[in-house]
Structure of protein-serine/threonine phosphatase:
Amino acid sequence: MGVYLSSPKTDKASQDGENDRLRYGLSSMQGWRTTMEDAHAAYPDLDSSTSFFGVYDGHGGQAVSKFCAKYLHEQVLKHESYLSGDLGTSLQKAFLRMDEMMRGQRGWRELSRLGDNVEKVSGMIEGLIWSPRSGQVNGHFDDWPDEEGPHSGFDGPNCGSTACVAIIRNNQLVVANAGDSRCVISRKGQAYEMSKDHKPGLEVERERIRNAGGFIVVGRVNGTLNLSRAIGDTEFKQNKKLPAEQQIVTANPDIKTVELCDDDEFLVLACDGIWDCMSSQQLVDYVHEQLNTETKLSVICERVFSRCLAPNTNGGEGCDNMSMILVQFKRPVQAGPSAEQQPTSSRQSMEEASLWLLHLEKNRAKICFSICGLHLLPDHRAADAGDVTDKGNNRNMVLWKKMEYAS
């Protein structure tokens, strides 16, 4: 059986959601591929002020991409740097932690549950028999104990996955990327790439690969992998003298941070099944066009797939799995500008109004008594309203009050 089906699977798994800060839509489609190896994660309320979105494009199987979709965001939350506000460090540590968690008996068992190979059933049985904590199969991120069993020496999977993740906290956008999935934001209709595709031909990637003992043939690491960074792919991470960041293929992500502003309209996270068919600007233009008539963001993602899907498998482009997340920023309710931010004319008007009010305040006694037909005593003293005297037909009310008004 080849890598392509005789006809594409065009069923789409889609989802929409929102909170008071943003709304999102996502979709995925298997397409011409014989298996679906993409995965995604969408947590608009990772905490009260933070949203998390990620796309994971697997290769060699679906186990690693599904593992990342299940656990990576939890590892971000766990790290102490997240609580201190250092989102970039928490993302980096979470990416590297994925490789650590996929080792040993526990990692093998979880990958077998998530994977699509024939070991899936036997793996679950063996894991349950040999694991001293078998009841924790669905445990949370903070419960990842070492387990004894026939796969205790498991180094990790030879399949792998890209990971492109965006965290939005208040007006801060932090993107972490390893591989050739991509994040793009639209700012006043212009596409700005928040990630860099990690290909072996890039100078920084080529240098690391060679320093770690690897080589590049026809744009592929050791002649096989067309990515230079990925989670998983343990066969390229066997140099015991080097840290994880310096291996032939590394899970260490690039981190990019920007402050969002009113010019930022939306962001897109997508796998290379989209980017092989459309440039970043082409996709931004297409999304803008669709937003004029379509309000459901997942539908826009689905239309992108239909646009990219190849009519046949002769060319290669448009034949991959496709996954996309579209996040649209809601406009926050803006507080009034400070005095320093007011235009000059506005500040002058405010200053003039303030002076006029001060004048009224200083002379309110005169103005009030003049309007009411009252007479002030020469020393501008007035009495309480209760001390009113009637002096004949003039009915002049003289108010005696123990306070002095400035003239």
Summary: The first helix runs from residue 63 to 78. The longest strand covers residues 4-18. The two ends are 100 Å apart (CA to CA). The chain has eleven helices and 17 strands.
